[in-house]
Amino acid sequence: MTEPSAAPALRRRELAHALRQLREDTGLRATEVTSQLGFSPSKLSRIETGNRPIGLDDLQRLCRLYQVDEAEYQRLAELAIASRQESRWRKLGEMDPVTVEFADLEDAATSIKDYKTSVITGLLQTPAYTSALMRGFQPHLPEYEIRDRVRARALRQEIVLARTDRQLEFVLDEAAIRRVVGGAQVMREQLLHLIELSRESMVSIRVVPFSAGVHPGMDSLFTILSFAEEVRDIVYVDSLAGIVTRSETAEIQRYRAAFSRIDSLALTASDTRLLLTRAAHEMN
Q1: How confident is the model at residue 92 (pLDDT cuts 50, 70, 90)?
Q2: Helix, strand or coil for residue 237?
Q3: Do β-strands 234-239 and 221-226 pair in parallel, antiparallel, or remain unpaired?
Q4: Do 129 and 182 contact (CB within 8 A), yes or no?
């Protein structure tokens, strides 16, 4: 059986970028490709945005049309095969497809910029905090499913935080560290955990204080993922309706500007640790 891949979602997006670039290099419009190959416009669009995997038959037809040499075809075919492998996260049955893709890309990212308003970022949560949060969000969720989700999140933390070659920037609104989740003891342990993590060289954790006033992130939760491969940055926006993906250039620039503004209002790392320490003492 094929070994589950660490990041098939990234390979799919890497292939999508390459195919779109090949089409543009040949001077073909999307309508010309769909006409010649009998693809529907939506099929080609999903292939070129990485929203669907591509079979080798369709890949061969595109490569013939784009006059791709054998070596480049083999490289693209390897990406196509890798993109169709089972994600390691899909084996954890409690994760929905959008979360599986997010975990894939989070795993592969070389830079993660994350902002949260009223909850602690998932990668920074203690198991007790995660468990209490899930009970509050979905009170009818069975205990076994909560345990499975807590385990999956802990595994994601272990994998992402173990790498020392990626940049992790987390900005939290002060509301996130003041809102008591799971009781005072759970919250105190969570705040102390943030202090400990903030001392890691590749992890930046900073808080935007209430005194900063109005800022662009007050009504939003989002994560910006960047990659070493030739893949466009991806923004994930979290809401009550679920995770929404943004990969359009204008949208990425908008969220990057928002993060930069929020980051400029955040306390320094040392002042953030002082605030976290005071908040933890108040939980006593």
Answers
A1: low
A2: strand
A3: antiparallel
A4: yes
Average pLDDT score, the chain: 90
Q: Dihedral sign for Cα 232, 238, 239, 242, please.
A: positive
The alpha carbon dihedral of 22, 25, 31, 33 has a sign of: negative
Q: Tell me the Cα Rg of the chain.
A: 21
Beta-sheet strands, E only, within the chain: 111-116, 167-173, 203-208, 221-226, 234-239, 242-246
The angle subtended at Cα 15 by Cα 14 and Cα 16, nearest 5°, is 90
Q: Indicate the range of 2-11, 63-72, 147-156 predicted with least confidence.
A: 2-11
CB 226 within 8 A of CB 106: no
Q: Rounded to whole angstroms, how far apart are CA atoms 206 and 226?
A: 20
Task: Give the model confidence (pLDDT) of 26-44 as tens digits.
Answer: 999 999 999 999 999 999 9
CB 131 within 8 A of CB 35: no
Helix (H) or strand (E) holding 220: none
Reported pTM: 0.86
What separation in angstroms does the CA of 263 have from each of 169, 260, 273?
9, 5, 16
Beta bridge pairs of residue 173:
208
- In this structure, the chain runs to a length of 284
Q: Which domains does the chain have, with CATH numbers?
A: 8-83 (1.10.260.40), 88-282 (3.30.870)
Tens of pLDDT along 193-214? 999 999 998 999 999 999 999 9
